[in-house]
Every structure is written in structure tokens, then in C-alpha cells.
Amino acid sequence: MIMGEIQVDAENKKYEPKIAAFLCNWCSYAGADLAGVGRVQYPATIRTIRVPCSGRINPLYVLKAMANGADGVLVSGCHPGDCHYISGNYVARRKFALIKSLLSHVGLEEDRVNFSWVSAAEGIRFAEVVKGVTERVSALGPNNGIFKVDDGGAADE
Amino acid sequence: MNNIINEIREKARQLLAEGKVDVVIGYEKGSLPLKATPCFVHSPEGVDSLIWDETCENNLAAYAAKTPGKKAIITKGCDSRALAVLLQENQLVRDDLFIIGVSCSGVIDQRNILAEVGEILEAKISDGKISVKGMEGDKEYLFAEVKDATCQTCRYPNPVMEDLHIGETIEVAQDAPAFADVVALEEKSASDRQDYFKEQMSKCIRCYACRNACPLCYCQECFVDCNSPRWLTGGVNRAENLFFQAGRVLHLAGRCVDCGACTRACPQGVDIRALNRKMTKDVYVMYNHEAGIGEEGKPALNEYTTNDPEQFLVKE
Amino acid sequence: MKISKEKFGQAFDALVPEYQVIAPVSDANGIAFKGVKSFSEVKQDYLNSKLPPKAFFFPQHEKLMSYKKEGKDVTVKSELKVEDTILFGIRPCDAKGMQLLDMVFKNDQYTDPYYFERRDKSVIIGLACSKIAPTCFCSSFGMSPAGSEGSDILLIDLGDSYEVEVITEKGKALAARFEALSDLSAEEQALVDKIKSAETASKVDVANTTSKLDKMFNSPFWDTLQEKCIGCNVCSFSCPTCHCFDISEEVRKNEGTRVRTWDACMAPLFTLHGSGHNPRDNKKARWRQRLMHKFNYFVHNNGAMACVGCGRCIKSCPVNMDIRQVIDGANKAELVVE
User: Fold this and answer.
1) Domain count, chain B
2) CA distance A64 to chain C (A)
3) What is the DSSP letter of B200?
4) In which domain, by residue range, is B172 found?
5) Which positions ≥6 away from A22 have C-beta within 8 Å?
6) ipTM of the shown complex
7) pLDDT by position in tens, chain B (length 316)
8) Could you tell me which of B88, B37, B81, B31 has the C-alpha nearest to residue B61?
9) A6 lies in some domain
């Protein structure tokens, strides 16, 4: 995943953010797939990383995405109650609440880090979520915040 | 105090002589004024170096898992909470542990004293007063004035679990935790908070004293030392320092017992507690959970309820 | 010879446009060596900085070079940027520490350009200690609170003026910029003599430590010594003579940098091999290394002890490990016949 540079469309001078999207295999990834199959249009701002379950999300993934220059992060999993592994997203829910809260506390803009539940049937809603997140992150502009590592960066994984 | 010290020594002597434990982990007088230092007593002859007072600032639970054999530990309230979390997480064998509980009225934070009187030449503690002779002058403090910030709002001065209690217990007036410090920060604007943490993080030299002093940072391999994936570049700059601190704090969320060991250990005076306390408050407010207040139970993030709050979700 | 502080301040300010001037200032966290633009910013009355000034020659995190691959072309660029620098207000222990670091970064086969480019382009104005902290023990090592080793110019604070001693050629060139030098009065001379003859109250006996340590590799002393150490890097990072580092590549896409970062022998990662084997996989081995390196190996290799008695590690240690007690303990440890 390379989030190093800020994408600026030279022709239109339109800033297009890069958003790291961690999607759970069973619901949100399938939802994104459904949006694609159904030809639902949404901004090409996300870089999808498929994870087995939203419970797999390590807070460090979010921090690392911010450090590597992602302008935003979207984490999406199954609706509570629908987890393929019964309780993965319930456990994740507490973790997400705390990640969001801590990052806001240290002064990261609220809208940089986003969490949602999107089911495999919600292709249209997935597109809505991406649109919404893209709009809000675009409004914030490039990530020059407190987590962005100015130089060096890290080895690509 | 003297009675407590005598009792601690007597009990330690007994435990070692009877072969019930291999080592007693306590405190002895440090090499600097107002400093105690952790002390490992292996034989009954060594027990007379053990002390107990307001300078016993280290959290000895940090040694529990790393010290082999059966051990007795002089345990304050916060230390016992850390031991409880370690037991909840299966890091300790209860039978290898003999908890000598002592109630703690708080420990001294030297920082303010040092700022006022310079390097401390001599100090004496008696009757709740601390008289200090420093390079820049002398001063007498009331204990309450120099008590560590974390001890000011401590609700668990008495050990939550113990095999033996020494001395009297301390009555606690407050019944709900106070988070005035967190609220004060929360009420500031996002950019003010950002500025505050930027300043704090620029002080960090990544010596990892906070991590190593923490009784609950016990990962075999800390993420900062991990080579693959490489979370941090090894760069020592504000952004990476925050990555380290935020990563650590999130790892401690719902587990931190607010003993303040990290902040006291920090040679650079970084306000690490400001991050930990925020998590402690959130966990208390959202999940009505306090870490390590009993041997039973689980850390907050190992549990869930079906109606946990969801305000953090996107609006779509 | 002496110069009034007023005149010195003027000379100091006149040097600012030509040099990067580093001096002690008071910040949120105590005393730190930082770049200053005027003598008025300089903290006058201070014991010593929290962290040693070694970072100006040997930064905690330093880019050595950067590289980029474009098609088949690879460009490699040096990242070394050096300015003429004056380090003002360096205490005699730290100045001596720089001399010890010189021995590490230069030998008969190799001179470290990153360290020495900076070192050669800087002038050290030492400032003798008029106050001695209880944790100071430089006199143990044949040094003194007014020692001149490692300084190019040594100043002694006389209240309104400084006594100026030129130590090296480099110092002589710089001292030429100080005008209005005048002779000391008898009283001032007496003060200078007093400061020069001062010793630290705290001292450890290191006369036989090196030879004792020769025989102590397998001593049980190390078993109990390490128990309370929590294995952080505070002592190493706050030491004016600790110099271990790690070199790593920070690569992103088709470009990268090679960086050098302080490392510390107290960290398990320090000796971890690529295979997963760790030759010093316990605190006991690490503490033995730390003490041996400072008081035995370094002596054998360079003829001096790698400790200047600044006391920073004593003050900053979270568990109050006191190197003076450790040396003392080693001196007294019984030798085990193998």
C-alpha cells in the first residue's frame, strides 16, 4: 500500500484524497463487490484492503495508514449480530470507539478516521458511505496532521 | 510507618526462612534523597534493608512475571490492580505469588520539588511534612502538595487482593472516579489539543522507560521492535513518537490501572497519562468498567454487550 | 585573562551570523542545548543539560544518504549538511565525553565522516562548573569540575566576567574575536584557583575496577545486579559517551534513505540476529556488557574509561540504579575461582 504522495489531478486542479478502506471479507467487501456488479458509481478514492473480519483490525493499521500519508481511513464490517464469527464485530466495536475517541483527543480531525457497518446486500449504501467519507475527507484536504511522517517513511509491506 | 516496616521485614523473614517464597520483592532506600529503589531479597538476612514510605513509587507488579520462582511482593493498591489484570490475562500463576498488601496514601512526585529547590541534597519525611534541602534553597512541603497527580484521585489505596495486609487500611471518600483532568483537555479546541500533544510528543526520546516501567506492557515483542511488519521507522520525531504512544495507549485501553508508573519513569516529563486517562475515562463512561479491581473479571476489550454505544459510526 | 560578560555577549552576538551557535537554554523540561540567536537567550545559571550535547555530532536519528532508482538510473545523494558551529557552555564532563567519542569514531583504519565533519567544523567553549551536584562524580576519573580536556576555550564564571583560557589552536582563532581582555584582580585569581581546585564530593574508586572486571565475566555479581533494571534506554541515551547505533534502510517505492539511529545495549533488540538467535538474550548479559564496555573493554581499546561522571544516568533512571553503587559492588564482589 502506497499512500506517499498526494494525488492532484493537474488538469482539473481537483484534489482527490486517498482513503485506506479496510473491509471485512464477509459483509463490506461483498457489499463493495455488489456495488461494482450493480455498476453503482462512487468516487475512486478508496484503496481496499480485505480483512477476514472487522475484529482483525489492529489499531496500528489505522495509525500506520495515517503515518504513511493516507488522507483518510474507512473501516467497515458486518452489522452487529451478523458477524460470520459470531462476535468479532462486537469486540471490534469497543476497540473502534476507543480508536476514534483517542485520535480525536490528540487533535486528529474527526472525519479522517471512519467506521461503518455495511452488509453484503448493501451495495448502494456502500457507495453512499464512500461518497460521504470522500466528501468529508476532501473538505479536510491532504493529511498533514500529527501522524504524518514527514520523511523516511516505512518499508512497503 | 515504622511499625509497618517492621512488620514487612518480619513477614519477609518468615516467608524466606520457611521457604515459602524464593524472593521478596520490595523497596529499599535509594541512592538519592526522596528515592526508594526496588529491592530483591533472597535470604532472611537481607530483609532489614526493606522499607516502606511515600517514596516507594515503582510499580513492583512489573517484576512479577519476569522474576522466576515463588515471590512475595510488597503491593500497593495500584500494584494489586496490575497484578489482578495480569492474573486475568493468565500471565501469572496465583500460587507462585504471595501478596503482602500495604495501604498507600500516595507517592511523592519529585518534579515540582526539583523545579523549586534544584537538585535535592537532603530530605526528611515526618508527620506528613517533607522538608527538603536543595541546591537552590530549602523548603518544607505538605505531603498533599507534592503527591503524584495519579495519587491525588486514587480510589484504590488499599490492595484489591492480598494474602496478608500490613498496617491500617485507608478510607476512600469518593465513590465515582473523577476525570477533571481529562475533561479540562476535552473542553479545549481540537487545535489546542493537537498543539498540546505535539509539544508533549516532541519531548519524547523513545527510551521506552514508560513501556518498561509499565506492569501491563508485557508483549514478548513490542510493536515498536517488530521488524516485519515494520510499524515504525526508528525515526525519533513528533509524528512517530505519537504513533508509539498512541499505539501503546490503545493497547492498554481497558487494562491500564492508572498507577502513573509510566509518567514517573519518563525522564523527559512527557504527559503520557493524559492519553491513558482519556482511555480510562472512555472505558468507564461507555462500558462502566474499571481495570483490575478484582481477581475475577476480564479486561474491558475482551468483553462486549450487544448494546455498546455506537456514536463513532459514520452518518450514512 | 578575563572578559566582561557584556563584552563577551557582544562578541557572542557578532558570531551568530557566521556560526550555528548552540547554547544552554531553559525549556519546558529543564535545560537543553539548542540553537540561539543572541547571548540574552542563554541560560546563565545552570547545572547541566538533561540530555548530553553529543547529539550535535552524533544525532539520535540521522540520514546518511538517500537513493532513488528511475528506470535503470540510480542516483545516490549524500545527506550530510554541516555548518560551522560553536557549542557554548559545554560542561567539562561533556567536553571530555566528546574526546572519548572521538576515539570511537576514528581509528587507524576509518574515520567516520558524519561525526568528524561536524566535529571538525565546531568549536567547543567549555564553561567550568561553579556548582557541583550531589550526583556529579567526575573527580573519580581524574577529571575536575573545571577541567579543560575537550574544550577549545574554557571559561570560568567570575560573576560579571569570564576568565578565558585558550586550550587549542581552534580556540585561539575564536578567542581572537574577544576584545577587551584584561588581567584578573587578585581576588578574581583566588576565585579561579578555588574553582579549579574544586572536586566533586561524590567519588568512586575506579583504581582497580578494570583489572577486577577482567576476572569477573562469570561472576555471580551479575545475577543480582540486573534484577531491578527494567531494561529501558534512559541511561544510554542520557550518557555523553554511549555511542552504539543501528543503521537501517527506510525504503519506499523506488527510493529510500539510509539512516543511523542511537541504539542501546540494554534493549534486547540490540543483539538480535537475523536468524532469531540472540547472544545477549537476558538482562544479566546486557548489564555485564554495559559495565564491561565502559570500564573494561573501552579501557583496553582506548586507554580510558567510558564514563565522565556527569551523573545523568543516576538522575534519570526510573528505578534508581546508581552506576556508582554498581562500580562499588563490582569492586567488592568476591571472585569465584573457576
Assistant:
1) 2
2) 14
3) H
4) 2-109+147-302
5) A49, A51, A54, A57, A61, A73, A74, A75, A76
6) 0.94
7) 679 999 999 999 999 999 999 999 999 999 999 999 999 999 999 999 999 999 999 999 999 999 999 999 999 999 999 999 999 999 999 999 999 999 999 999 999 899 999 999 999 999 889 999 999 999 999 999 999 999 999 999 999 999 999 999 999 877 788 999 999 999 999 999 999 999 999 999 999 999 999 999 999 999 999 988 889 887 888 999 999 999 999 999 999 999 999 999 999 999 999 999 999 999 999 999 999 999 889 999 999 999 999 999 999 8
8) B81
9) no
- Residue B16 falls inside a structural domain: yes
Domain carrying residue A96: 14-140
Residue A91 covered by a domain: yes
pLDDT digits (tens, 9 = 90+) for C199-257: 999 999 999 999 999 999 999 999 999 999 999 999 999 999 999 999 998 888 899 99
Is A153 part of any domain?
Answer: no
Q: Report the distance separating Cα C57 and Cα A38, nearest Å.
A: 62
Answer whether A101 touches B (CB < 8 Å). Answer: yes
| pLDDT in the model for residue B174 | 73
Last residue of a domain, one of B125, B146, B167: B146
Residue to test with chain A: of B185, B188, B252, B314, most A Cβ within 10 A = B314
Does residue B23 share a domain with residue B51? yes
CB contact under 8 A, A156 and C253: yes
B134 with B255, same domain?
A: no
B241 in the same domain as B197: yes
SS3 B17: helix
Query: Does residue B140 sit in the same domain as residue B156?
Result: no
The number of C-alpha atoms within 13 Å of B108 and in the hemisphere containing its C-beta is 25
**Do B87 and B65 have their domain in common?**
yes
> Is the same domain home to B89 and B220?
yes
B window 194-253, beta carbon within 8 A of C: 199, 203, 205-209, 211-213, 225, 233-237
Across chain B, where does the E strand assignment appear? 23-29, 36-41, 50-51, 71-75, 97-102, 120-126, 129-134, 137-142, 164-166
Domain count, chain A: 1
- Whether B135 and B7 share a structural domain: no
Closest CA to C188 of C163, C167, C171: C163
Whether the predicted pLDDT of C265 surpasses 50: yes
Statement to judge: residues B248 and B173 lie in one domain? yes
CA distance A1 to chain B (A): 12
Q: How far is residue B62 from each of residues B82, B211, B262, measured CA to CA in Å?
A: 8, 10, 11
**Cβ–Cβ under 8 Å, residues A88 and A55:** yes
The CATH number linked to A104 is: 3.40.50
Asked if the Cβ–Cβ distance from B265 to C269 is below 8 Å, we say no
Q: Is residue B310 domain-resident? A: no
Does residue A157 form part of some domain? no
